Amino acid sequence: MASLARLSTRLPRKLPLGARALQTSADSTTLTEDASHSKPFTVKLHEDSFQSHRTDTPSLEVEVSKDELLGMYKTMTTMRRMEMAADALYKQKLIRGFCHLAIGQEAVSVGLEAGITPDDRVITAYRCHPFAVLRGGTIKGVIGELLGRQCGMSHGKGGSMHIFTKSFFGGNGIVGAQVPVGAGIAFAQKYLERPVATYAMYGDGASNQGQVFEAFNMAKLWDLPCVFVCENNKYGMGTSAERSSSNTEYYTRGDKIPGIQANGMDIIAVKQAVKYTRDWVTSGKGPILLEFVTYRYGGHSMSDPGTTYRTREEIQRMRSTQDPIRGLQRYIEEWGLATEEDLKKFDKEAKAEVDHAVEEAKASPVPLEKDLWTDIYYKGTEPPYMRGREREEIHYY
Amino acid sequence: MSIALMKDDLAVVFGEDVAFGGVFRCTMGLAEEFGRERVFNTPLTEQGIAGFGIGLASMGHTAIAEIQFADYIFPAFDQIVNEAAKHRFRSGSQFDVGSLTIRCPTMSVGHGGLYHSQSPEGFFLGASGLKVVIPRSPIQAKGLLLGAIRDPNPVIFMEPKILYRSAVEQVPMDDYEIPLGKAETLTRGSDLTVLTWGTPVYHCETALHMLSSPPESLAKHIPASVRSAKVELIDLRTILPWDVETVTESVRRTGRLVIVHEASRTGGVGGEIAAEIQNRCFLKLNAPVKRVTGWDTPVPMQYEKFYIPDALRILDAMVETLNY
To answer: Where does the Dehydrogenase E1 component domain start and stop, copy by copy (chain A) (predicted)?
Structure first.
């Protein structure tokens, strides 16, 4: 599979002559010692797993363990199953409105979570479902929210993009709006002198929003412990990065803020880059940019078939040569950590877990009519009344 | 703000130039007293300031942001309307930015022109989840600002900029709050209600005085029959959500309403209030609800004094309404 990726004649991005391409295959990490079943062992990432700007690249030697890799495999598989379930529910017209899936980008969410602590903070944009689960939510809570049910993580009032946990400040429906909010969160952490990091995530599309640069400037000015993460899936809605951005090296766009570009398809590289950036911001060096080069298999949202601005062959090639889950599967099998049968068992368990959560979520009732009037103002400080959907419908507090 | 900073360790004040007092000297001495970690300048970044404040407030901090002029709030409009106002609802109350207060100088200054004399309060009317407050005097400003800072909802606090220089009052040193969402009746009356907020409160007071004892040059325009009219003057104070009960109760007694605001008429707050009042008081009204507002033009630099509703225009509207 990796060899297929290297045979590919099309470079993932336009490069000046002589520059080296970032390695974006999911399975180019190699063993440096025999894989152990009981204690951590060291592996070596592909030498082009990272590029850097105004800083060194993270070390290519990474310590991993069997349990960790199997855990990542299970979680990535479960997240993909959850997104597939959302896809099916949407097509059954049970989920309405907007829905953006992160299938293909699992290494970023699962790898990020593996590299941070529960006290760190994460805020992201549209593709937020996996983060919501990983940061303390549940699959039932996410699916329930998408279905608009009471069991949803925002009690069915937010829908996709508006799912929160104590350490996850949500998805966000306004392109780029979460980035300055992330800077504010990081400021609060610095003010409270907590040795933790904020990961403010956005896509290659949002990277051209003015307020993203406003946030960069404030973060650097005040040396905030903020990692600005650009999830570059190569298309901002239906426009390719090359057609939207004068500089597609997103990790270099922070001016004086250093940056790391990382292979977002190899979860071991993702985790390594996350750890590096976390160390950077928590040691008081100020903010850093982190670009993950990744790929989404589906369209931008459910209403986008995703094939009008790129070829089916391109998607198929990415799926077959750079899939993050298949890449990790290959490591696990080649390094003798588990057999194909073991992994198939995990797949079945993931499907069963998601199916169960979907059924539970479906059984949950929709929010009560009275819930329309709550959570607008703090309880007890509401205006005397609010108008409803019809002339006669007026709610008095 | 000094009280808020003193009593609340998590309170921070930030905005363009606030560390050395701000353009209107509102934050003078705060940076020296509380340190530059808590009172600091931001870049000229309105959208960023709003977003930053929202992030800070969602971590539980008391975020007191300043947008240097209400005219500059428009780059931050998205953050305020789409993020701050909806934060609580979209997270089912798990997160909120209730501890966010955005201060901004508003209304005309006499020579501000297009971008320093606007009154954008009406643009926020549709943003449920948000509160909008406009005080009329220093005592009111202190009490309402402390109320706004401590109110568990995000508040836009608009300070009429001409009053920074012209309004003088002995302000109590103590900590006190004036509740949000409550209008104040300044003079009681039975024949006409005049409703306003911010700077025009003073123009209304002048107009009331002119009505009862018109100067000689105006006397021929003021029929004797209206000079004894008892006019009720109400300062709305909180624009969103506005105090419907107080205004309704007043108009039910007086049967007449004149609304005065500086923002232009079309899409202004006056239209919303007029519609609601005629709905609730239709059979009690003796005259159509009258609006005295800025014109539907940008605020003109050279003709600003003709743009804003002055005492004469208010007087004219009162006479017309009383004689209807």
So the answer is: 75-367
